[in-house]
Amino acid sequence: MFENLKAPEADKILRLMASFAADGRTDKVDLGVGVYRNPQGQTPVMAAVREAEAVIAATQVTKSYVGLSGDPAFCEALRGLILGDAVAADRVATCATPGGTGAVRQALEMARRVSPDAAVWMPTPTWPNHPAIVGHLGQTARSYRYYDEATGGLDRQAMLADLAQAKAGDVVLLHGCCHNPTGADLSAKDWRDIGDLLEMTGAVPFIDMAYLGFANGLSEDAAGTRHLAARLPEVLIAASCSKNFGLYRERVGLCLAVTSGPAPREAVSGLMAHLNRQTFAFPPDHGARVVQTILSDARLREMWQTELTLMRETMNTNRAALAAALRDETGSDRFDFLATHRGMFSLIGADPEQVEALRRDHGIYVVGDGRMNVAGLTPETTPKVARALALVLG
After folding, report:
1. pLDDT score of 14 more than 90
2. Where are the beta strands (DSSP E) in the chain?
3. I need a labelling partner for 124 at 20 to 30 A (CA). Which of 66, 110, 165, 345 fits?
4. Active site annotation includes 208
5. C-alpha–C-alpha distance, residues 213 and 225, integer Å
6. Of residues 210, 215, 325, 339, which has the active-site annotation?
7. Catalytic status, residue 297
8. Mean pLDDT on 227-241
9. Does residue 211 contact residue 35 with C-beta atoms inside 8 Å?
10. Average pLDDT, stretch 247-252?
11. What average pLDDT score do residues 238-244 get?
12. pLDDT digit string (tens) for 105-138?
């Protein structure tokens, strides 16, 4: 069976992780892997998570299965966190998934089942797993212009021109906040204009909400998603708790579908449960129960939100410090856009050869397309990184 099998090309981020681990230099800096790090360079367990786990350990009496769509209390808690009161709960179908990636996969699989000929429109660039999953499912992929490399910001007019070509039933992928890999987010006006286009074309938005709370705040980051959910009859959403709850290895995700009413919601809920059954049966529960425990307890929720604010402010401080250091090193403002971006990632404008030079000559690891994780910076490493970027990028 396997004699002629050729292994798929290894994921570039996983290759980077292996290369970093094998590097013996003590001053190496990992700005590639997408995890949050505190100023001490650690990815800590949040205090609210520790307390929630203690509550669960003391009170949980069984490890038996929960439903195919996950614990309803978790689904409802996360639905409320994301959508608030933007749309009636009886219009929203939900199912728990293994991480945000599982939610992306289930949402796209659901779209493929319902509209097999629909195209999926993705921004250029986007998270590499988006086109990989679309390709794996055999869906038609379309791209729309998003990022202006010259300014480090949104290519707004080009984006709107491309999205105007989407057809009824097509799926338009949007990043809810903290665009990965660019860090360049949509403004409130951009969300309104996209809503105008989607209303006109009949295309369905699919919002990947992987970093809720990492940009400007929970309600601020959800505002665009809530606007579309309140305005349009159908919206798909994939949510992750890996970053904002620090539950990377627990694989906590939620797939949501805003429908036109209670009757279609029931049908979509049934399809979601069916897809879960065919893919992984019952979704994991421990991390989901941690999230539900935190969100349902006022004291733990406040503790979590305080920690989340600190994480967000740390990343924004890192951005400002790196932009200032680069201004000093280069004598120009060409990197000032880094301070205006939000979330963990930005593109530094490096080609593969320059990325290799950063690794080889300076021990600084970024992804091959020039994506840098600003959450990997510390006050001690920022000057070194700025010097290296100024030398390599010119």
Report:
1. no
2. 29-30, 92-98, 119-124, 140-145, 147-148, 153-154, 171-175, 204-209, 235-240, 252-258, 345-347, 364-365, 371-373
3. 110
4. yes
5. 13
6. 210
7. no
8. 97
9. no
10. 96
11. 97
12. 999 999 999 999 999 999 999 999 999 999 999 9
Q: What angle do CA 137, 195, 151 make, to 5 degrees?
A: 85
Q: Mean pLDDT across the stretch 39-62?
A: 93
Q: How would you classify the pairing of strands 252-258 and 92-98? A: antiparallel
- Token pair of 41, please? 């360079």
**Is 80 exceeded by the pLDDT of residue 303?**
yes
For residue 89 the two structure tokens come to 């709960």
Spatial CB neighbours of 175, under 8 Å, sequence gap ≥ 6: 123, 126, 185, 186, 207, 208, 210
* Per-residue confidence band for 40, with pLDDT thresholds at 50, 70 and 90: confident
10 pLDDT more than 80 = no
**Those residues with Cβ within 8 angstroms of residue 82's Cβ, 6 or more apart along the chain or in another chain:** 209, 212, 222, 225, 237, 239, 254, 256
Query: How far is residue 315's CA from residue 257's CA, in Å, rounded to a whole number?
Result: 31
* Omega prior to 181 cis, within 30 of 0: yes
In angstroms, rounded to a whole number, what is the distance separating the alpha carbons of residues 75 and 77?
6
Residues 216 and 341: their CA atoms lie apart, in Å, by 11
Nearest Cα neighbor of 180 from 240, 255, 232 is: 240
Active site residue 304: no
Please give the Cα distance from 78 to 256 (Å, whole number). Answer: 10
State how far the Cα of 371 lies from the Cα of 351, in Å rounded to an integer: 10
CB atoms closer than 10 angstroms to residue 366: 26
- pLDDT, residue 38, reads 85
Of the listed 121, 127, 191, 304, which one is catalytic?
Answer: 127
Residues listed for the chain: 394
For each of the domains in the chain, give its residue range(s) and CATH number, in order of start.
12-45+304-393 (3.90.1150.10), 65-296 (3.40.640.10)
Query: Of 35, 43, 52, which is closest to residue 287 (Cα–Cα)?
Result: 52
Name the DSSP letter for residue 261. S
- Residue for token digits 């499912």? 137
Q: Which of 30, 93, 243, 323 is catalytic?
A: 243
Per the CB < 8 A criterion, the answer to whether 171 and 203 are in contact is yes
